[in-house]
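new request in #modeling-help
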Amino acid sequence: MIDHAPVLMIVLPVFASLVLTLAGPLGHRAAYGLLILSIAGSLAAALATLVQVVEAGRPVHYHMGDWMPPMGIELVIDHLSAGILVMISGCALLTAIYSMHTARQDNPDRLHHYYALFALLVAGLMGMTATGDVFNLYVLLEISAISSYGLLARGRGKAYYATFRYLMMGTIGASFYLLGVGYIYIMTGSLNMADLSDILSRPEFKDSVSVRIGFTLIILGIWTKMALFPMHAWMPNAYSRAGTTTACLIAPLMTKVSVYVMLRIMFTVFSVDYIFQQIAWSRLVIYLASAAAVLGMITALSQRDLRKMLTYIIVAEIGYLTGGAWLANTAGYTGAVYHILADGLMTLCLFMAVGAIIYRTGVSTSVAMEGIFQRMPVTAGVFLIAAASVVGIPPFCGFFSKWYLLQGGVEAGEWVFVAALIIAGLVAAVMFFRLLEMAFFGRLDDAVMENGSQNAHAAALNIRMDEAPLTMLLPLVITGAALFGLGIYTNEVVQYLIRWSLPAGM
Amino acid sequence: MDDLFYFIISKYNYWAAIVLFFIGLYGMIVRNNLMKKIIGMVIFQTAILLFFVSIGVKRGATVPILKFSPDKQPLLDATAYANPLPHVLILTAIVVGVAVLGVALALLQKIQRVHGTIEEDEILEDMRK
């Protein structure tokens, strides 16, 4: 059984999604249980593989159908992907538990179809992370993209047009990736990542124009998918108009997995030498990343809609990640990989907390934050932890990733990036202090008025009890604890996972 | 001049793919009508599919099933067979393209129901209200 864990973590959600499409007559409770069961199985398989990889100290290879690579498709789970697989399935499981009330509210009809897409998206993301084949990655990329279009469109109303624009951009991104794979395939005749890296390291490919164009197309496609600064316009509308559960699932995972794909292409398929000596775009990319970080945070500051604000924070975080990956030193790479894990959890935590607040108050602008500490103390407490983590206050994990990124920036002498990180952090601090001030000292009367109650005293009493339901609160608290835990165990994560995944020559 | 002509003619499959690629991209980005955007998207994807299919073509080659010479010896000459892999990949990519097209059309129908139009500027105006 343990030998098949790498494939089980992908197959379980796929199988669940097939069953879920037919599970309508069984009712929503059965659908909910089935979803949780399959994703829990996926998480267990991911954890088992992680343990295996860390204990053996080398990657786990799984040959699909026992066809040997480079002809067959293989799944490769190394120190980099093992951690991210656990993060994906963990976040998905928490969101699945969280979805009990919100998903039913957003999807009064055909909840099982919604859950089928949910499971399929998780399968696609897990597959993208685990696969060792560039074309297989394209197919899984499109599987996750198509299911995310379906999920986002369930926000209804304005969500349809926002999703349509996302679909256009997503298709352009994926098609660029496919075209780039075509160029690389013509030159090398292979699609297996390990095999490609062997072939591409030969001296005759050093100056090949076709390989360079292939790389450019692939990386442009991935940047579109991960919403790097000039290509980010599709994201805020698509994410902020989605249903609560959808936003909690897609916002932390989709963009982070795309960043992981970028790292894979840069450092596994191509090499450190090729990226930083032959391509040598570092300067330009770091400027883009810095612009993303600063402009993303400033735009976030100017938003009134809570979830739109959070999506602009993602734009900024993508800037941090991209900058770290292109710094070309150990600290930058460590920061980028660690930040994939940290930011996945932080974004999940923020979206869950805001989702719970919107669920209870019915208001989605920052007015909803008024007096939240009195009304929903636990949710507000976790929101405070997530905010502290985004701003970068120790001992939460956001501090450590920023620390590594800053260190990398200083070592590489990229002062623009260092300045951008600091400015973005300060802007984030201003933004969250404004929200938390409202949350602490906001007038309760406003909230009371919104609830339409006549008797202010009785309403205030009622409001005091108005915490989110347990199925929402529990995942929220676990995520908050995970932010703390990841921060405390930073050293172990870096030592046992990220150090091992350092690309050769860095 | 002859060189340029030869350069274009000898790689005409790439040129055809590039022209279609940009027609599609133009349609997706510039057009105001969402249906035309979808048509642009299909042309754009088809350009890439044709590019892949054309690189798998080999003149005088046959399907990659092992052939036997009259004296029952297997023909192990790689040049006699076409490379099936690009075509197999494209079979998958076509399926992906059809799925995306289906989702796009379904979304378009919903957009038409919500906004009453499929012209982009009118939708944006409707959303501002």
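bot summary: Chain B has a mean pLDDT of 88.
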